[in-house]
């Protein structure tokens, strides 16, 4: 069975106008009723950097988690954000973007890769104390526009360091839509073979005509955990002015049917969530 992380946070973060907090809560509650394994619901980052997510704590307070088996994931950019996320026990996963591109690490978190690894180590210690789990996203995981080094070997070097720190969940993140089957396949094939104790995920950005070949390449190379966003909205505003959308969750569900590994979801609730998705993203704000 495919394991899906639904990423409304990634869909909303670069949206040009502020989405009312009440509508965010209603949309996220609709997604919780669908039954995704994980919901990337918000981010504890500077509101100056990502104004859209300044209300994450308020949104969290409004979520109805009573009957949901979905685990919550919050993204942070530094130890301070992780400490804030750790104060909320209903959050299962704390996600941190560790870039394999020095240029993007500076651009995204104002730190070097070496400094970011220090943060990862301290966040791992924090999660050990709180019972939460850290998810490290290897951003620019399939190449970058800056000329910084990239190869499956570079990914392996980063993952080896993460493994030594005790990190057990690593997601290769496309960030700008640069991935192709030629970069996806060797990355997952080599990493899944070399680090059997780590759960690898794919956070792929895509254009409408290239989604299937990307998912197919990751799946055939051993990946079973995928991030998506309904409608394919979103992208990283810290990476480029023109955003390349997220992997549409609808396409992931289609793929799950073709390989007979479709996740078990509440389809009636999914219809309601899709209606909320269109209210929010189809030009109403």
Automatic annotation (TrEMBL):
Phylogenetic classification of the source organism: Bacteria, Pseudomonadati, Bacteroidota, Cytophagia, Cytophagales
Start and end residues of each Pyruvate carboxyltransferase domain: 1-265
GO biological process, one term: L-leucine catabolic process
Keyword check for Transport: no
Family: Belongs to the HMG-CoA lyase family.
Matching Pfam families: HMGL-like
Molecular function terms from GO: hydroxymethylglutaryl-CoA lyase activity; metal ion binding
Keyword Metal-binding: yes
InterPro entries: Aldolase_TIM (IPR013785), HMGL (IPR043594), PYR_CT (IPR000891)
UniProt keyword list: Lyase, Metal-binding
Organism of derivation: Hymenobacter taeanensis
Protein name as annotated: Hydroxymethylglutaryl-CoA lyase
